[in-house]
Every structure is written in C-alpha cells, then in structure tokens.
Amino acid sequence: MKMLGLAAVSALALMMAVPGPASAAQVEPAPPADDVAAQIASDPEMRYVSVAEAEAVYGFDAHAENVSEPVSTEPVITPLVSWWGCDWHGQADYPHVTNNEASVHGYWVKDGGDCPATGTVTVELQALGCSQFGCTWITQETDRAPDVKPGSGTGRWATPHKACANNNSTGWRGRVDTALKDFYDPFGWEDGPAKDLNCSPA
Fold it and tell me: What global pTM score does this model have?
C-alpha cells in the first residue's frame, strides 16, 4: 500500500515536472485599411512620392485599390424608377497640371438602359504618400457637381484643384462617386487611372 502510494506521488511529481504543450502563439489581426491609411497620412515622416518610386521602394501596387467600394450591404430595393436595365459608371480622366495646379475631371457615363436624366458627381483628387508604414492615396481636394447629365465636358463634370508646392514627381489620381437622382446607389467610389505629375501638393 505504502509502495503504491509512493508510486502515485512519484507519478504526480513527474507529471508536474514535464512541461505541457506550448500554447499557440497569438496572432494579432491586421489593422483595418482605413486605420493604416490614417497612420501613414499622419506620420511626420510621410512624403509624397511618384508611383514608380512607391512600387520600387515600398512594393506598393498602385492599381490594387482600383475596385468599387460598396456603400451598402443592404438588399437591393426597387427605387423610385425601374433600376434594372440601367447601367452606368463613374469615370475620372488622367490627372494633369494647369497653371501650377494639379486637377482631374470626373463625370458619370450612361452605359445603357432606363436611367435618370441627371446625377450628382463627387470627385476626390488624391496624391500618393508613403512612410515607414507603407503607402496610401491621400485626398487633397474634393469637388461636387449636382444634377449633371451623363458624359464629359464643361457643365457635366466636377474638377477639384490643388496647388503645387514644387515640381517633385508625385503620383496623382481621381476617384468618383455618382448618385443618380431618385435612384438606389449600390456602387460607391470608382478609382481613376494613376499618373505621375511634376507637382507635389502644397
């Protein structure tokens, strides 16, 4: 009996001495993209760079974000006018420099179907900024054109402008949000093409 008890105590001591299996390392989830963008934009060491430099030095893909961002996850609801059969998109042209200001044109395009006659176009002009945390597009100016018909041209597009501080090569792009009149809007922002300009934002 005593030997049995001794054996049990010895076994217990051995179990306590042997380390258990290592617990799996806790992996911190990646912060949301908006948080990273805000971190980059507020970094005192952030600087505006060209698309070429961002890709070569920081491994940034200037085209990775060129996807529409849905503004709603709610089920599609029949709007005030028949929405099926209406096909449209927002579009930005290539950024350019005029009178020492960077600018971009944004407008909406009717691709076909039964659509409202007008829509409100909101355009953001963005410059490419990078820091130790990575790179992101930073909005410089916003312009809005209410109740405009589809297509490009004066009176149909919104055109944000931003003064140049110097002629350092910097990546620029526009992005467009279109809200058709009395119409359900499932799309959100649509990114335009990126282009390096000899203009760093003031």
Answer: 0.75
